[in-house]
Structure to design on (473 residues):
């Protein structure tokens, strides 16, 4: 067991670099890009924690993991004990350790980061979760009682999985209803294999089924059954809505219906869920393109661009109407895209998609922009430059500018109020305007992060428990 170093020695340890596939190799495969810490690296990195009296990192975590405690377990080489600390508030550490924006949350408020680089909390979370899985040491949490009450969870994405796991541990009978043919939501159909291997998601989901959670796929609530029926006819005492924000936004410019123009949702779903990357074993309908433009600058745009490159494109462009300084994607994702050869076209905005005689996309007309005064987002507003229109030759375009809520479910439940964007309006704990119905994740927040959705699920699990045991509403 490693001994904890004196404070003056700990501050001398530099943040451990994560081993990666080299760009020239990884851009030709769908294998995971970061390779993970070694045992020695993990212990050295955990030693960097200063055991702060006021651990701000915990407050920076949406599910409030006891970060100093799990780091201490790593120093003691009790890696399974470290995972158990994490799982007190987060049952999916191998997932969140990979896709959480720790640089904006726990690591952003790490005290070490005030003078040095912050402790690599996410990488350490991933390390201990992988250690547990790779050594077949995963234990199913014990359920100590049976509440004899059923709860329906609509959507098998991050918020739904979190609320299901917490309530199952409290002794509730949980059924998740998922519209697609595999559970996981954005973890399966949205995030690419090279960022989050599907085998890891599947393994994490096994823990829920071992807790007794039932998952019904290909089941569209709002069509197959109504929420009122779940409560009044099917014997469920409460319902949680976690259907995400699955309705893509488009640019509303001429030519958007041409063959070769995708939403990021459709493109990533075809590649990830339908396994288009495994051609010819899976002959998924998708255009094999040479020159692809992705419109947008968020993490989804980066995922789309890096996926398109791996699907064989010669040139992949990200067209973004602001400058690099305003781009909303995580720094790591942006840097990985640049390393792999993605070409960024900043201060440029599409104004028309142009097709050939067969209605297939052949180019995009764009207009150069300059930055004006800040808008409501705090970023400088892009302003068109007159006379700057020009064309970029492409055969595929992927629109990745955001999503809103899918109206299918909510149109069938007029008692649940939504805002002008179609997001469910909730009170504390995710209580909606329909008694017994709760909601969380992107259907409430709009497009957000996996861990924020999971935090909503945990909050709703507590609220549902209070509602079903104490009648609190």
């Amino acid at each position: 067991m490693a001994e904890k170093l004196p404070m003056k020695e700990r501050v001398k340890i530099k943040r451990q670099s994560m081993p990666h596939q080299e760009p020239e190799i990884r851009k030709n495969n769908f294998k995971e890009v970061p390779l993970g810490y070694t045992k020695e690296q993990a212990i050295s990195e955990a030693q960097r924690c200063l055991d702060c009296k006021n651990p701000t990192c915990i407050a920076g975590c949406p599910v409030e993991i006891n970060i100093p405690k799990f780091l201490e377990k790593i120093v003691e080489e009790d890696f399974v004990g470290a995972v158990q600390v994490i799982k007190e508030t987060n049952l999916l550490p191998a997932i969140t350790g990979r896709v959480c924006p720790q640089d904006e949350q726990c690591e952003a408020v790490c005290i070490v980061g005030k003078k040095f680089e912050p402790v690599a909390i996410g990488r350490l979370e991933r390390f201990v979760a992988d250690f547990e899985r790779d050594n077949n040491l995963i234990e199913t949490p014990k359920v100590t009682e049976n509440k004899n009450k059923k709860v329906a969870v609509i959507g098998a994405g991050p918020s739904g999985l979190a609320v299901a796991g917490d309530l199952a541990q409290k002794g509730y009978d949980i059924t998740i209803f998922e519209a697609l043919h595999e559970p996981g939501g954005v973890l399966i159909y949205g995030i690419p294999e090279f960022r989050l291997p599907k085998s890891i998601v599947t393994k994490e989901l096994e823990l829920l089924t071992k807790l007794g959670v039932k998952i019904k796929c290909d089941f569209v609530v709002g069509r197959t059954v109504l929420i009122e029926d779940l409560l009044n006819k099917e014997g469920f005492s409460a319902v949680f809505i976690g259907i995400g924000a699955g309705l893509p936004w488009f640019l509303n410019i001429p030519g958007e219906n041409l063959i070769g123009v995708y939403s990021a949702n459709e493109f990533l779903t075809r590649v990830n869920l339908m396994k288009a990357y495994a051609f010819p074993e899976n002959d998924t309908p998708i255009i094999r393109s040479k020159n692809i433009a992705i419109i947008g600058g968020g993490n989804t745009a980066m995922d789309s661009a890096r996926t398109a490159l791996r699907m064989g494109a010669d040139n992949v462009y990200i067209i973004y109407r602001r400058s690099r300084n305003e781009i909303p994607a995580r720094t790591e994702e942006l840097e990985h895209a640049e390393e792999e050869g993605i070409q960024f076209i900043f201060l440029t905005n599409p104004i028309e998609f142009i097709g050939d005689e067969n209605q297939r996309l052949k180019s995009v007309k764009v207009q150069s922009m300059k930055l004006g005064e800040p808008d409501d987002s705090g970023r400088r507003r892009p302003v068109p430059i007159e006379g700057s229109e020009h064309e970029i030759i492409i055969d595929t375009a992927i629109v990745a500018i955001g999503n809103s809520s899918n109206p299918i479910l909510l149109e069938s439940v007029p008692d649940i109020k939504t805002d002008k964007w179609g997001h469910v309006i909730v009170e504390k704990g995710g209580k909606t305007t329909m008694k017994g119905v709760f909601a969380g994740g992107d259907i409430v927040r709009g497009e957000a992060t996996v861990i924020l959705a999971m935090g909503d699920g945990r909050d709703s699990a507590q609220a549902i428990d209070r509602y079903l045991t104490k009648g609190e509403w």
